[in-house]
Amino acid sequence: MKVLVVNCGSSSVKYALFEMDGEKKLAWGIVECIGLPSAYYKMQTMNTEEKKEVVEITNHTEAVDLIIKELLDKNVGIIADINEIAVVGHRIVHGGDKFSRSVLVTENVKKDLEGCFSIAPLHTHAHYAGILAVERKLPNIPSVLVFDTAFYQTMPDYAYMYALPYEFYEKDHIRKYGFHGTSHNYVAQRSAAMLEKSLMELNLVTSHLGNGSSITAIEKGKVIDTSMGFTPLQGVVMGTRCGDIDPAIIAYLLDEYPQYRNGAALNDLMNKKSGLAGISGLSGDMRTIIKSANEGVKKAILAFEMLVYSIKKYISAYYGILNGIDGLVFTAGIGENSAPVREAVCKNLNILGIEIDEKKNNEDSNKERFISTDNSKVKVMVIPTNEELMIARESKMVLTSMS
After folding, report:
1. Does residue 254 surpass a pLDDT of 90?
2. 2-147 and 197-387 share one CATH topology?
3. How is the chain split into domains, by residue range?
4. d(Cα 394, Cα 103) in Å, to the nearest integer?
5. What angle do CA 309, 355, 296 make, to 5 degrees?
6. Is there a catalytic annotation at residue 148?
7. Which is the catalytic residue, given 148, 268, 285, 374?
8. How many C-beta atoms surround the C-beta of residue 140 within 10 A?
9. How many Cα atoms occupy the beta-carbon half-sphere of 317 within 13 Å?
10. Where would a tag sit more exposed on the chain, N or C end, judged by fewer CB atoms within 10 A?
């Protein structure tokens, strides 16, 4: 069975094609800068080198057209007929309280997804455009929606509720939802395999650290809490997101700065102009921050320390809530690639039984591995995430259950 995984952003379409017999990735790529004068397309297959080119793409439908055309190309393609694709799996960031598991796309499902537009405006519109584009190009191939929020359905109400008047939950469904669930789910399963135990026996803290970052507490296979909330803005300091702040700051900004009385402008400030970029005045990219910090740039040092401190707070809190943990996992762009961040996060957490080996931590590797010392009570792991494979697995499972 072949599964095409599609991940649509506001101006991009990322994809991967899997052969589920052996879970082999056959082809992958991305169309970026959709709608701009020059878009960019990158693709690669298991048999060919990466191909890059500038293209004219004005919308998601044209992007999907290009992807399908390339998959069928006699020279660089990987399939001979479009009907080789059994199902298309779509990554959906926010399912609200309407979706607690992966679902087959129907007209009713699309209507329910429209109801999530207001709570994830930066993501859901783009996902919806991708769904429609796939339906136009592949009208006879079923699609499955896989939600980042679904993994968090096991959170207890005292963890996901906010202490606002209860009617805001009843009427507007304001609650913590959590994000990056597909990634946290994948690395939790892989950590259990590495520890040679059932996930149902383990307490874990998983750290998805990238431009967007989230920390999740997992107790015997079930999520107890996570750092992101009603939107992906809550939690640790991120590349361009502020993370946790005193909510009264928002009221202050509304009173003092007329330009932020527009909701979109305020959202833009907190989501796109804050975090590492806002503090450093340089960039939200951790590589730039570390380079500048090493050169003695004070605001870069501050940004680095703020990010590390916020991550340490969540790990420590979740350690306490779980009454001890078996494993600490680092994943995603920063978690997988930044040894300085991992070292700084784990420093002085030896009281929790967390000790990392400097040599193992600095090893240049893109493979899953342990970086803790032999004596560390908590096993510290680096696990490259594979959200696309998880989406492919979920899509296969839903399709199989329908037959």
Report:
1. yes
2. yes
3. 2-147, 197-387
4. 9
5. 45
6. yes
7. 148
8. 7
9. 16
10. C
Give Cβ neighbours of residue 220 (< 8 Å, ≥ 6 apart): 199, 200, 201, 202, 203
pLDDT of 80 > 90? The answer is no
pLDDT grade for 376, boundaries at 50, 70 and 90 = very high
CB 367 within 8 A of CB 165: no
**Tokens standing for residue 351:** 């009281």
- Read off the pTM: 0.90
pLDDT over 90 percentage in the chain? 67
Residue from 297, 379, 381, 374 nearest 342 by CA:
381
**The two structure tokens encoding residue 188:** 């939790």
Domain with residues 2-147, CATH architecture: 2-Layer Sandwich (3.30)
Please write the tens of the pLDDT for every residue from 13-55.
Answer: 899 999 999 999 999 999 988 888 888 899 988 888 888 888 8
pLDDT, one tens digit per residue, over 350-365 is 999 999 999 999 999 9
Residue 270: HSE in the Cβ half-sphere, 13 Å Cα cutoff: 22
Place domain 197-387 in its CATH homologous superfamily. ATPase, nucleotide binding domain (3.30.420.40)
